[in-house]
Amino acid sequence: MLQIKKLTITHRKDSKMILEDFSMILNDGDKAVVIGEEGNGKSTLLKWIFKPELVDNYADASGERILNGERFGYLPQELSTEDGRKTIYEFFTENILFWEKTPKELGKLARNFGLGQDFYYKTQLMGTLSGGEKVKAQLMRLLIEEPTVLLLDEPSNDLDIETLEWLEKFILETECSVLFISHDETLIERTANVVVHIEQLRRKTKCRYSVIRMPYREYVTQRRANFNKQEQEALNQRREQKIKEEKFRRIQQKVENAQQNVSRQDPHGGRLLKKKMHAVKSMEHRYEREKTDLLERPEEEESIFVKFGENMPAIPSGKKILEYSLEELHSVDGITVLARNLLLEIRGPEKICIVGKNGAGKTTLLKQIVSDLAERADIHTEYMPQDYADLLDAGRTPVEFLCETGDKAEETKIRTYLGSMKYTADEMNHPLAELSGGQKAKVLLLKMSISGANVLIMDEPTRNFSPLSGPVIRQMLKNYPGAIISISHDRKFIEEVCDKVYELSENGLSVVSVIR
Q1: Ramachandran quadrant class, 361 (left: phi over 0; alpha: psi -120 to 50; beta: rest)
Q2: CB 270 within 8 A of CB 277
């Protein structure tokens, strides 16, 4: 059992409180998901639980961890630069527990991840692996250490669908307690029995948290029902209060008029009116007290708001967007043949998704398509890469990155747009390097939105958006009047947004009819 008592975390740079008096118990066998909007401190919470000193360079934290002999296994959101320079063999064998495992145990673990036993001994650099392969390797090394509590920061990022299904099964069946962050709604719905919800309210000036012991979908449904009920009760109380106040004002006005018109020759009438006015004043005081007892209107963190192609005419259905053919798709080093005989044709406002196993070459293929379409004058493309660093200058602020002319009017407009994406004024001026993955994704999404592009090329577009923002993003992309070429393993994105799904394998691209 892991227990957290009265944890308070404050971001040092802008004094924003991330958590205040946060307490929770993670019981044996719990599968708890941490949810909340981008930049709300989810990763900071996991880092502090694992090793409080991991947040010392940017946050002040106080609180108590009661570990009860638990052994942590921590998966960070991104592979460290140091680990990226290691070979796969070095990455595994520097852990002394690796040598205590039998070949049979290592082989079983590798097969569970869809890998051969030779994977452990490869000389390929960790940093050159695909996104999904990096996650697999880190998870495998964690499991070799036999932890009792797993702290997983985005374990589902970049995993292929087959491995996602394995991860779901693993989380459900492992005897470890699991506290994880994920933006994959399907994974959360199928595994979590505890929801830890971190919120920032009133334009991120007030923090709130909830620890609810129920499945995620039930939590979302109940939360919405409770919100609507409280909202309705609060509105009803205010409506009734308004009726009472209007009635009171009529009585007060009537008594005041009578007092003004009472004859000095009628002292008895004057005394009666004075008593009535005293009663009116008492009524006024009672109504003022009742106002303070009115049910508060519920607060919730608002979802992001952004539109794509709002004023853009729809692409004609017969318009040729892409007619791509390639005899051989090679790896980045140009040595390995990843796929042969690739054919892909897209017409009109089609929304297509490319899936496939990790390392199949999906990102490599997408980059080639980006390069080809960039030469076209008849269409306007925008690209969201899997690695945001490919486009973002870490030293610039979101405002600096998005402003093209630098004039005051443009900056004001950009700040308004960023506000709709739930950026605070302070966050707009933070270097991109200091922002979370989700906040960086918002910047790229906003760039696409204001660019006027009629073709979007997106590598894992939903991977860093919270499950609460996910439905907004999917609806926005579904309604986009242009074409979308994407890579994704987000099953809800595939189901709700995409018209056609292609699987990339060594034999090329084939249409997939069903995504589980």
Answers
A1: left
A2: no
Place of tokens 């129920």: 214
DSSP 366-429: HHHHHHHHTT-SSS-EEEE-SSGGGT--TTS-HHHHH-SS--HHHHHHHHHHHHHTT--HHHHT
Beta pairing class for 500-505 and 351-355 = parallel
Q: Which residue has the tokens 């796969």?
A: 88
The CATH number, out of the four listed (3.30.420.10, 2.60.40.2250, 3.40.50.300, 3.10.310.10), of the domain defined by the range 320-391+449-512: 3.40.50.300
Q: Helix/strand/coil (H, E, C) string of 129-176?
A: CCHHHHHHHHHHHHHHCCCCEEEEECCCCCCCHHHHHHHHHHHHHCCC
Q: What distances in angstroms separate CA 233 from CA 237, 239, 241, 298, one per listed residue?
A: 6, 10, 12, 10
pLDDT in tens, 257-294: 776 776 555 666 666 766 776 776 776 667 666 666 65
Output the CA–CA distances (angstroms, integers) from residue 96 to 50, 81, 100, 101, 137, in the order listed: 20, 21, 7, 10, 16
Cβ–Cβ < 8 Å for 401, 440: no
Question: Running DSSP on this structure, what letter comes out for residue 35?
Answer: E
- Please, what is the average pLDDT of the chain? 86
Q: Which helix (H) or strand (E) holds 324?
A: strand 320-330
Tell me the C-alpha distance between 342 and 362, whole Å.
12
CATH no., domain 2-223? 3.40.50.300
Backbone angles phi, psi at 369, to 5 degrees: -65, -40
DSSP state of 210: E
Euclidean distance between CA atoms 47 and 55, whole angstroms: 7
Most confident of 37-46, 120-129, 306-315: 120-129
Distances in Å between the alpha carbon of 166 and those of 113, 148, 156, 264, 374?
7, 19, 11, 93, 38
The pTM for the full model equals 0.73
**Contact 145/75 with Cβ under 8 angstroms?**
no
pLDDT band with cut points at 50, 70 and 90 for residue 157:
confident
Q: Is the pLDDT of residue 516 over 50?
A: no
Q: How confident is the model at residue 94 (pLDDT cuts 50, 70, 90)?
A: very high
What tokens appear for 476 in the block?
């926005």
pLDDT tens digits for range 349-362: 999 999 998 889 99
* Integer Cα distance of 357 and 158 in angstroms: 10
Torsion sign across C-alpha atoms 90, 96, 100, 101: negative
In the structure encoding, which two tokens stand for residue 239, read together?
């409506």
